[in-house]
């Protein structure tokens, strides 16, 4: 799509600068996975600062109107164009749909490639342009939708659902009822309507990962949700869109991780704990059962409580409150 095509979908887009505004935009991208000739949305100053500290290929940039004065700082990337939108959240919703349709319409209609040693039981479904590696097993009711990749020695138990554009490494086990790659929970509210953000990023799962029964890993918005090698998810776990889990992360049952959060290597979440969106935990952090994380924490932090605090601090606070509450009046 050219810039003029984008304007037909979102008429209030205004060009700030760009000698290459007639160039074709191939997709929507983000800072984690920038793509040549992609379209990058910048909604706030925090994200803008991250962009300015990065290296980008030649892309189109769409700014929130309140960031128009910052446009000159982005010229160093020699973008195809820099434009603004009065309501960038609504622009994201409206522009995501045609690019979603474009991506899904481009799926190759090639037949699936199933290794000779793989076993696909009766009642399993395998879509177009799917690859299934050596010795993998799909039990009845397992569904692998178009354009997904299943590595070697994987097991998909009954009634697992793998959405399009999911990549699963080797030696991965996904238990019954789990859903990998469903749309993230993304909407932008305007004039009494929740406008959907169409998710097309998919999921990438590393080697030696296990996903418990009835767990969900949402697909990324414009780039993949990532589950690192050797990570283990218990039953009834929710991983939001665009999360990045490092190597060896352990997530116990009934944990929910908000979208775009990062858990570094070997972090552990106890049962029924949780974490908000757009947050980061360093390497080797531990979150006690029932704790709720609402800010970033560095490597090796042990957390408990709500809001989560360093565990010893939280326990001292609980002891103080209990002591005070038991005092005779």
In short:
The protein is an alpha/beta fold and 329 residues long.
Sheet with the most strands, sense and barrel status: 11 strands, mixed
The number of strands is: 36
Strand content: 25-35%
In CATH, the homologous superfamily of the domain at 184-203 and 217-314 goes by the name Hexapeptide repeat proteins
Kindly report how far apart the N and C termini lie: 73 Å
CATH topology of the domain at 184-203 and 217-314: UDP N-Acetylglucosamine Acyltransferase, domain 1
Question: Helical content, roughly?
Answer: 10-25%
Strand order of the largest sheet: 7-10-13-16-21-24-27-30-33-35-36
CA gyration radius, whole angstroms: 22 Å
* CATH architectural category of the domain at 184-203 and 217-314: 3 Solenoid
Classified by CATH, the class of the domain at 184-203 and 217-314 is: Mainly Beta
Structural class: alpha/beta
Number of helices: 4
How would you sum up the global shape?
flat
Q: Give the overall average pLDDT.
A: 95
In the predicted model, the low-confidence regions spanning at least 5 consecutive residues are none
Report on this structure:
The protein is an alpha/beta fold and 329 residues long. The model has no long low-confidence stretch (mean pLDDT 95). The protein is flat. 15% of the residues lie in helices and 28% in strands. Among the domains are: 103 residues, MurE/MurF, N-terminal domain (Udp-n-acetylmuramoylalanyl-d-glutamate--2,6- Diaminopimelate Ligase, Chain: A, domain 1); 118 residues, 3 Solenoid (UDP N-Acetylglucosamine Acyltransferase, domain 1). The strands form five sheets. It has an eleven-stranded mixed sheet with strand order 7-10-13-16-21-24-27-30-33-35-36, with helices on one face. It has a nine-stranded parallel sheet with strand order 6-9-12-15-20-23-26-29-32, with no helix packed on it.
């Amino acid at each position: 799509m050219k810039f003029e095509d984008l304007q037909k979908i979102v008429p209030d887009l205004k060009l700030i600068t760009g000698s290459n505004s007639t160039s074709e935009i191939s997709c929507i991208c983000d800072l984690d996975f920038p793509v040549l000739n992609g379209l990058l949305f910048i909604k706030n100053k925090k994200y803008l600062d991250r962009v300015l500290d990065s290296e980008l290929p030649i892309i189109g940039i769409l700014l929130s109107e309140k960031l128009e004065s910052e446009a000159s700082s982005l010229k160093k990337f020699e973008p195809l164009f820099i434009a603004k939108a009065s309501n960038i959240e609504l622009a994201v919703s409206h522009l995501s749909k045609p690019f979603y349709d474009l991506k899904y319409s481009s799926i190759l209609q090639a037949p699936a490639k199933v290794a000779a040693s793989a076993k696909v039981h009766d009642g399993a479904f395998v879509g177009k342009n799917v690859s299934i590696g050596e010795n993998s097993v799909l039990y009845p009711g397992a569904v692998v939708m178009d354009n997904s990749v299943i590595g070697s020695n994987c097991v998909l138990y009954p009634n697992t659902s793998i959405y399009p554009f999911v990549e699963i490494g080797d030696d991965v086990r996904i238990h019954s009822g789990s859903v990998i790659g469903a749309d993230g929970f993304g909407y932008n509210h305007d004039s009494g309507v929740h406008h959907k953000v169409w998710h097309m990023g998919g999921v990438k799962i590393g080697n030696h990962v296990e996903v418990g029964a009835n767990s969900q890993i949402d697909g990324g918005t414009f780039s993949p949700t990532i589950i690192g090698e050797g990570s283990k998810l218990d039953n009834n776990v929710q991983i939001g869109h665009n999360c990045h889990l490092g190597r060896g992360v352990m997530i116990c049952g009934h944990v929910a991780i908000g979208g775009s959060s990062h858990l570094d290597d070997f972090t552990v979440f106890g049962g029924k704990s949780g974490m908000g969106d757009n947050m980061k935990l360093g390497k080797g952090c531990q979150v006690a059962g029932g704790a709720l994380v609402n800010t970033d924490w560095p490597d090796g932090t042990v957390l408990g409580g709500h809001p989560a605090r360093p565990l010893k601090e939280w326990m001292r606070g609980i002891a103080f409150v209990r002591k005070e509450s038991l005092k005779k009046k």
